[in-house]
From TrEMBL:
<dbReference type="Pfam" id="PF13279">
    <property type="entry name" value="4HBT_2"/>
</dbReference>
<comment type="similarity">
    <text>Belongs to the 4-hydroxybenzoyl-CoA thioesterase family.</text>
</comment>
<dbReference type="InterPro" id="IPR050563">
    <property type="entry name" value="4-hydroxybenzoyl-CoA_TE"/>
</dbReference>
<dbReference type="InterPro" id="IPR029069">
    <property type="entry name" value="HotDog_dom_sf"/>
</dbReference>
<dbReference type="GO" id="GO:0047617">
    <property type="term" value="F:fatty acyl-CoA hydrolase activity"/>
</dbReference>
<protein>
    <submittedName>
        <fullName>Acyl-CoA thioester hydrolase</fullName>
        <ecNumber>3.1.2.-</ecNumber>
    </submittedName>
</protein>
<dbReference type="InterPro" id="IPR006684">
    <property type="entry name" value="YbgC/YbaW"/>
</dbReference>
<keyword id="KW-0378">Hydrolase</keyword>
Amino acid sequence: MEYQFKVNWGDTDAAGIVFYPNFYKWMDQATHHYFSKLGFSTWKLFHEDYTGIPIVEAKCRFQSPLFFEDEVCVKSAIVELRDKVFKIQHQFFKGEQMIAEGYEIRVWANFKNGKPKAVPIPDEIREKMKKALSDNIQVLG
């Protein structure tokens, strides 16, 4: 799935280069966009079912800088799917050039009692995730 945006002035540092934490913010936005495109608003899941997808690990490798007003396309794909956990990969492109790539590992969690508890990904959502997967998926128990 693709998530597109334009770099804002506030995303840059004094040198006019995108400040690196913004890549993590954009990975998070791309993940929420991914689920929205599958038909599952993460906002709605949380407010109706107390379900969230907290991050337990994230990494990003930078290859080239981005600047104010650059148009960016983030291509996201699930690359690993377990019972309660998934790994989503994000690749950042400016035109044809890959700028950065990273991933998030997230847990399907219920927040009903205030404290997150890992729970199995619902079958309906799991099936839609499988249909949208890249060819290099690892489906694990």
